[in-house]
Amino acid sequence: MLDHLFLSSKIDMHELRLIHTDLKPENILLVSSEYIKVPSSKKNSQDEIHFKCLPKSSAIKLIDFGSTAFDNQEHTSIVSTRHYRAPEIILGLGWSLPCDIWSVGCILVELCSVRLLVMPVFPLLP
Question: Which terminus of the chain has fewer Cβ atoms in its 10 Å neighbourhood, N or C?
């Protein structure tokens, strides 16, 4: 569900020909801070039930539009946080709307795998 909401917000931006250029988990906020407690499958040695908190709503907001650019305006050579930077940026081939989609894909991999992408895909390049 979160992936659908996230991608729909990107589609809205792209319809306006806007490129965020700095998509990363820190720039994605939940709209509501309300949550529900649900029992976790984990139990400790005393057989106590643990709970996990899940957001009541999956609505999100994107923030930090400081480096946002229009698709048709001149672009700087380096954008995006290193771990979420698209290959075309790293290789110096220029960039456009798809660089945001690469960042979205990296973030979704982190969410689904519950692991951070500690090393960028191309760690030896600037």
Answer: N
Among the listed residues 3, 12, 22, 71, the single catalytic one is 22
* The pLDDT value given to residue 118: 58
> Quick one: residue 13, left, alpha or beta (phi over 0 = left, psi -120 to 50 = alpha)?
alpha
**Alpha-carbon distances, residue 33 vs 3, 59, 89 (angstroms):** 19, 11, 35
- For residue 120, count other CB atoms closer than 10 A to its CB: 15
Which tokens hold the place of 96? 């456009």
**What residue type is 25 in one-letter code?**
P
**Packing angle between helix 98-113 and helix 2-15, nearest 10 degrees?**
170
User: Does the active-site annotation cover 22?
Assistant: yes
Domain boundaries, the chain: 2-113
CATH topology for 2-113 is Transferase(Phosphotransferase); domain 1 (1.10.510)
* Each residue's pLDDT tens digit, 46-101: 777 888 888 898 888 889 999 999 988 888 887 888 889 999 998 989 899 899 99
